[in-house]
Amino acid sequence: MISRKLDDEEGFDDKYALLQNENLKLQDKLKNYNNIQQELISANYLRDKQLESYKKLNFYIKSFIQSKTIQNFKSAVSEAVVDIFSAESSMVVFVTKNDVTIYTEGLEKKEHNPDNIFRAIENITLNVSERAPFYLTEKHINNHPALEKFERILVRKFESKEENFQFFIIGMVSKKMAFSFDKLNYEGLLMFDNFSEQIYSILKHRLYKENLIEETEKYRNVIAKLNLGLLELDNTDKILYADENFCKLLGYTNDELKGKYGRQTLFDDESRQAMSKHVEGLFNEDISFVHETEMLTKQGEKRNMLISAVPNYSVKGEIIGAIGVHLDITNQKNLEKKLFLEKEKYRSIIANMNLGLLEVDNYENILLANNSFCEISGYTEDELIGKNAFNTLLNDKGRISMKKQISIRLKKESSVYEAEIITKQGEKRTWLISGAPNFGVKGELVGSIGIHLDITNQKNLESKLLNSNNNLKKINKELDTFVYRISHDLRTPVLSIMGLIDLIQHGDDVDMSDRNKEYINLMLDSTKRLDKTIQEILYFSRNSKLELQIQSVDIQKLINHIYDDIKYVNKRDIIFETNFNNIHFIDSDKARLEIVLKNILSNSVKYFNPNTDKCFVKFDISQEKTYYTISITDNGIGIEKEFLDRIFEMFFRATNNAYGTGLGLFLVKETIEKLKGRIKVDSQINVGTKFIITIPKKYN
């Protein structure tokens, strides 16, 4: 804030000429301030925008005060609206009883006559009260052809009935740029209101030569509303004024600070030494500065502050002190520190996992490459930084696939993909890459980050495994063909032998002794076992390849049919008990289910206990929500405990007295697994055996 008192008008132009010259210097300094300030304030975007708006406001207010003519002043105001509030176009309109003067910025006269636009806005704002900000949207604008180009308009109207003039400050954006102007929230509107108030105050001062003390207070109020701490010092470093925000930041009152030496009171030794260099440059060399430092609160706590300071001039152009604007960035600094530690932690994790990390900008220029990336690519970090990853690391095939990934990244999406990479030594390698978009502090896309794993050896092994798998498939196919052919070729003569034996047994002209009949029966039993073995081998080959044929199965009918087939396996009377629990039909593969149940039931009948008076086989089926449970229990000879874990192995027989080939229970287990079920067994010697089977109710 600049304080002045104008005692008379003598030498007024000369004084303002000096101020204008100083303003040009300040403009260059503030541009530097813009760049530094953007780098320092990143964690809190709203504060950033507030400080940036204040900085621009500071520049323009000084230029307004120092402008020599009303025309220069109005023209500068129209530029300020575009610059500070991100408007695409602006107008400043000054209406008197006899004249209307219009100043524009960014408005193309060939498309719209500014006078017509002003008249349209004036018509809309006829009912708007004086000094009220008015935010026009499409519903206001669409009724005025002169405003068709625009989608949002911000208007501040001032009217002096006593002096008979109106003053309009107008910001406009077209439909293409409306999204940025929409971000103007309550604080933005408040800023526009304060800005307009300040402009109007300066205008009145220029028109009526009012005292600038009132303007100083209004300028302080603008800063106060922006939540920035204002401190004024004389050229001996004594505090002249501390606004309410500054006092809140450090816990003081204005009275406690006034008259104290700023550097001695507010800084520790280390920070005081750095500040002294900046303050001396400001007082002695007229150098404004922006500096990040630590300041002490009244309680001795350290707070991180961003200070923007400019010289304060007397009406003669002499430096009489300094004005500093203070922004508390402690939370941002803590956040930056936390983010830095997190970033380093994850970089360390990635490095220890031997994963290559590469960071590129939106044009694929390399910004960062960790040690692991350098190792797998063969390049040094210096050889990679600044190079284009697309052209440096990829061959033609890799570039084609990478173009697709770049388009995905521009959509702010992540992806995992494989790419062919050429190392520095010219070797072609295959990498697995996990790529993700990289965002700036404002949420904008600034590039990509990729994690790279060299999977060349795995791909080579995969290729070998694929070849081996193909060879295995070929062998399996040939083996299936062999099993089918050999089983078919074996079964044909077996069936012929069985037919001949049957003719011998039942022929009318055959007279055999009892011994020959016994031999014939033994031959028939052996031939039947051989035929069954061949059938089991054929079934095993088919079971693993044929898909399930799910249908509705009449379980009661199926069990009765199976028992009718097996009840004469031996000459012993066996009691067959069933409990269907009102279950009649189930959904399953009928052929496979029959194989399972027939094998288990026939074993229960075959291996009866000869020492038991009443032999029995019990069949029971029950259901739960998602599966059926089938149990088959007998009181046969039982199975040795040591063999229970092996009975489902191929060709395993628990006793030398077994009738079969050892394939039956193996086929049962394979078939149940094909049915997506489970089987378990419990048995005791001379007590009996119980098989429990679960199969699903539904198949997807």
Describe the protein in words.
This protein is an alpha+beta fold. It has five domains: 47-207, no CATH class; 227-334, PAS domain (Beta-Lactamase), CATH 3.30.450.20; 353-454, Beta-Lactamase (2-Layer Sandwich), CATH 3.30.450; 455-546; 547-696, Heat Shock Protein 90, CATH 3.30.565.10. It is 47% helix and 24% strand. It is built from 22 helices and 22 strands. The strands form five sheets. It has a five-stranded antiparallel β-sheet with strand order 2-1-5-4-3, with helices on both faces. The radius of gyration is 47 Å and the shape is elongated. The two termini are 78 Å apart. Mean pLDDT is 77; it is low at 1-10, 36-44 and 210-215.
Distance between the termini: 78 Å
Number of beta strands: 22
Q: How many helices does DSSP assign? A: 22
Query: Beta-sheet strand percentage?
Result: 15-25%
- Looking at how many chains there are and whether they match, the oligomeric state comes to single chain
Q: Profile the largest sheet.
A: 5 strands, antiparallel
Overall pLDDT: 77
Pick out its properties.
700 residues, disordered N terminus, five-stranded antiparallel sheet, elongated, Beta-Lactamase, 22 strands
Topology diagram in text:
Layout: H1 12-40, H2 45-66, H3 70-85, E1 89-95, E2 100-105, H4 114-124, E3 133-136, H5 138-141, E4 150-160, E5 165-174, H6 178-181, H7 186-208, H8 213-225, E6 229-234, E7 239-242, H9 244-250, H10 254-257, H11 262-266, H12 269-285, E8 289-296, E9 302-313, E10 319-328, H13 330-352, E11 356-361, E12 366-369, H14 371-377, H15 381-384, H16 389-393, H17 396-410, E13 415-422, E14 428-439, E15 445-454, H18 456-506, H19 514-543, E16 550-554, H20 555-566, E17 574-579, E18 585-589, H21 590-606, E19 615-623, E20 627-634, H22 664-674, E21 678-684, E22 688-696
Parallel strand pairs: 17-19
Antiparallel strand pairs: 1-2, 1-5, 3-4, 4-5, 6-7, 6-10, 8-9, 9-10, 11-12, 11-15, 13-14, 14-15, 16-18, 19-20, 20-22, 21-22
